[in-house]
Structures are given as structure tokens and as C-alpha cells.
Specification:
There is one protein chain. The protein has about 325 residues and is of the alpha/beta class. The chain has one domain: Aldolase class I (TIM Barrel, Alpha-Beta Barrel). About 45% of the residues lie in helices and about 15% in strands. Helix 11 packs antiparallel against helix 12. The longest helix has 21 residues, at about 185-205.
């Protein structure tokens, strides 16, 4: 068992999942403004530190994805943020892409950038305490998208990123996200997601990636946000598992789903349904941002000094997600 495999398993074993707290300054500013809190380095740190020092970090959160600003900040207890996270036996991670830009040759689509200078940045992040990383490729979906160009370009970038990360002794999260926006059917989502994931693994194999030392972060198979026909949670689970069984090599230790615009309850319920029928060897867990933080953020915004109250809201959500990662969640537990 490799060291990278050990890290991946530590992040996802025993129902643990990943807190995606890697919102860029621009995104975090929008989130804070939506709850009438001024966005400053101090306010962004205060909210994140409130979550990172909560009780559920020990039992529920196996890894935290940080943003460049956050990994370099110092907590109130004078620990660095990676030290604060590690004190709960949780592994610090870092987002390393520099965002999705217009794809030359297909201006309606995006390519994720950030490979230039990445080797140097990875060494710095490793010294700061990061042991895993994240890079997100995004794919539009319609009757003509994602194009072959988008699928190939993003798969190639994800593979080059993964090779640099593993060279630096960190675990790459490979995140090919087929977006929910659109009026596509769940069947379309299944087809396009399968194509995207298969191409990613073709490239990862060409780049000699140790597949036992990565975590895949895909979307669930859902109908588009404007689709005429939605599907049941049971069908989401069946199609998602079918897609992953047919597209992901068996060496991959774990899959951490993104919430991709689902509500907190939807993301929890669908993960639970997936785990109730998971007949694969993959650990299937969560890597949620909004679906772990939104209720806590709303509560915190009313009184940013109410640390205990905010942590209680976050602990509940994290506990629900961890139960779902074991197929043990039920809607009754949401009100207890």
C-alpha cells in the first residue's frame, strides 16, 4: 500500500468526507454579501476557523480543501490553519487550479488553467502542510456540448496536474464536473459524464498516474436544472453507480461527490441512496462546499461571535453527510 493510498483512505474511510472550503476570494465575497456580512480577510478567516475548530471535524471531516489565502492565515489560537485542521486528525488540502477560462476553439466552453509554475507552488503548499490537492474541470452540457475538444483538453490538463501532484507526494483530487445547468435529461447526463470520466482515465493512465493514490470528485447523474422531467433519488443512485462502475478503474480507492448546486438535503439524501445500493469496492463519500456550509453561514451571519451556535449547525450537517456516506441517514434525523 503506497503512502498516497494511505492518505486517500484516511480522508474517506469510516464515513468521513471532505469539506470544500476553497472558495476564491470573489466567490466567498458573494457568499458573505448574500448574508450581509462584509468580506474582509478577517471575516473570511473567522467563518472558516469557526468550522475548522468544530467537534465534527474529528469524526466526520477527513480532509479540508483550502484556498491560497486561507492556507497562509494564522488562527486565533496562533496555530497556522493547516496546524489547526491537523489537530483534529484531519488532512489539509489545497485548490491549485487558477480557474476556468474560455476555451480557444470553442468559446462557449471552458478550460481550467494553472499548470504554469505549478511544480513550484506545490512544493510551497507541501511545506505549508497540504497533503492533497484539487483541480476542477468544468463541462457544459447540451445537445452539442461538451465538445470533443473540451473533453480532451480538460482530461489532458487534469492528468498533467495529477502527475505533478503525485511527484510532490500529494494526493490529487480529480474533479471533472459536468454542470447541472441546462434542460438535459438524466440519460444525457449519464452519457456525457461517462464519456468525460473515461477520457480522464485514459489520460491519467498515459501520464503514469498511480490510480490507488487519487480521489475522483464527479457529479452525480441528475437531470438538468431546467429539465422537463426530473428523476427520483433512487434513479439518481442507480444511474450514478452504473456510470462509475463502467467508467472508473477498480484501483481507485474512493469517490467523493460534489454537491453541484443541490440543496443540503438533496445532496445528503442522494448520497445516502447511492450508499444503500453501492455494490462496488469504491468508498463513496462527499466533498461538499455549500451543502455543508450554507445553514452554518446563515446562522453565523446573524451573530458572528456566536461560535458555539454556528458550530452546532455545522456539526449537524456534517453528521448527516457522514451517516449518508454509510447509507445510514434518514429524513427523520434532520428534525431530531
Amino acid at each position: 500500500m503506497t503512502e498516497l493510498n494511505n492518505i486517500a483512505l484516511k480522508i474517506l474511510s469510516n464515513g468521513k468526507g471532505i469539506l470544500a472550503a476553497d472558495e476564491s476570494t470573489g466567490t466567498m465575497t458573494k457568499r458573505l454579501q448574500s448574508v450581509n456580512v462584509e468580506s474582509t480577510p478577517e471575516s473570511r478567516l473567522l467563518f472558516r476557523e469557526t468550522l475548522f475548530s468544530s467537534e465534527s471535524m474529528k469524526n466526520c471531516i477527513g480532509g479540508v480543501i483550502l484556498y491560497d489565502e486561507t492556507i497562509k492565515q494564522i488562527s486565533k489560537s496562533k496555530k497556522t490553519i493547516p496546524e489547526l485542521i491537523s489537530s483534529s486528525e484531519t488532512i489539509p488540502g489545497i485548490k491549485v487550479d487558477t480557474g476556468a477560462k474560455i476555451l480557444a476553439g470553442s468559446p462557449e466552453e471552458k478550460i481550467t488553467e494553472g499548470l504554469d509554475g505549478l511544480r513550484v507552488r506545490l512544493k510551497e503548499y507541501y511545506k505549508l502542510g497540504a497533503r492533497f490537492t484539487k483541480w476542477r474541470g468544468v463541462y457544459n452540457i447540451s445537445n452539442i456540448y461538451p465538445s470533443k475538444l473540451s473533453i480532451s483538453s480538460n482530461a489532458h490538463a487534469l492528468a498533467r496536474y495529477s502527475a505533478l501532484v503525485q511527484e510532490c507526494k500529494m494526493v490529487p483530487i480529480v474533479e471533472p464536473e459536468v454542470l447541472m445547468e441546462g434542460n438535459h435529461s438524466a440519460e444525457d447526463c449519464f452519457q456525457k459524464t461517462s464519456e468525460v470520466i473515461k477520457k480522464c482515465f485514459d489520460e491519467l493512465i498515459i501520464h503514469n498516474i498511480d490510480l490507488t493514490g487519487i480521489i475522483l470528485k464527479p457529479n452525480m447523474i441528475l437531470a438538468g436544472t431546467n429539465a422537463n422531467k426530473k428523476i427520483s433519488g433512487e434513479d439518481v443512485a442507480k444511474l450514478t453507480i452504473k456510470c462509475l462502475k463502467e467508467s472508473v478503474p477498480s484501483e481507485v480507492p474512493g469517490i467523493a461527490f460534489l454537491s453541484g448546486g443541490q440543496s443540503e438535503i438533496e445532496a445528503t439524501e442522494n448520497l445516502n441512496l447511492i450508499n444503500k445500493i453501492n455494490d462496488t469496492n469504491f468508498i463513496m463519500s462527499y466533498s461538499y462546499g455549500r451543502a455543508l456550509q450554507q445553514s452554518a453561514l446563515k446562522f453565523w451571519s446573524k451573530d458572528t461571535n456566536n461560535t458555539n451556535g454556528t458550530q452546532a449547525v455545522f456539526n449537524h450537517r456534517a453528521n448527516m453527510c457522514t451517516l449518508a456516506a454509510q447509507g445510514k441517514w434518514s429524513s427523520k434525523l434532520e428534525t431530531n
